[in-house]
């Protein structure tokens, strides 16, 4: 199974590192061009700066082909800025200048919603179906999920707050599993992609 990491901006080496520990080298593919996107059967959208990633996606001619693959249900794990790009609706953020989104996850999200003082924090996250106890949630200038519509279901919580939601094989988190040193979420995502492929 060929697995891509969108490699335009953000935590690209971190996702490649996490996936490198879980996949044979030939199965892992940084995606910078439409021809690379065509070859992958799953993709990771990294954290970073959503406005920059959106701009670079357009510049690389990747916006439309990625939109189409997402509509078709390309299995996707999107973290932080990645989740922002998947949301149905962005509530205007204090940071201003919100990017366009693919709208494939039925969520209302606000960028940078934890405010300046709390730009970054860590805390335990409960993930549905994940064995081995709480997941170390790393939140960096994180977006907040304000609303989960009927087209998405929550699967991760920090206390009572929803910090991860999915629709079928399209998953998004407001935290950064690629920065936690914990591979369980990457592994769980790949396992369900493989199960569905069989
Ligand atoms: N604040 C960033 C944005 O709006 C997301 C932060 C991140 O991905 N760590 O895109």
Description of the molecule:
The protein has one domain (3-197): Class I glutamine amidotransferase (GATase) domain (Rossmann fold), CATH 3.40.50. The radius of gyration is 15 Å and the shape is globular. The model has no long low-confidence stretch (mean pLDDT 96). Helices cover 27% and strands 31% of the residues. The longest helix has 14 residues, at 184-197. With 198 residues, the protein is α/β, with parallel strands linked by helices. Strand 11 (161-167) and strand 12 form a beta hairpin. The strands form 2 sheets. The protein has a 9-stranded mixed beta sheet. A 3-stranded mixed beta sheet has the order 5-6-9. The structure holds glutamine.
List the helices and strands and how they pair.
Blueprint: E1 3-6, H1 12-20, E2 28-31, H2 34-39, E3 42-45, H3 50-59, H4 63-71, E4 76-79, H5 81-86, E5 87-90, E6 105-110, E7 120-127, E8 135-140, E9 144-148, E10 153-158, E11 161-167, E12 170-173, H6 184-197
Parallel strand pairs: 1-2, 1-3, 3-4, 4-12, 5-6
Antiparallel strand pairs: 6-9, 7-8, 7-10, 10-11, 11-12
This protein binds glutamine (GLN).
Glutamine is lined by residues 47-50, 80-81, 84, 111-112, 140-141.
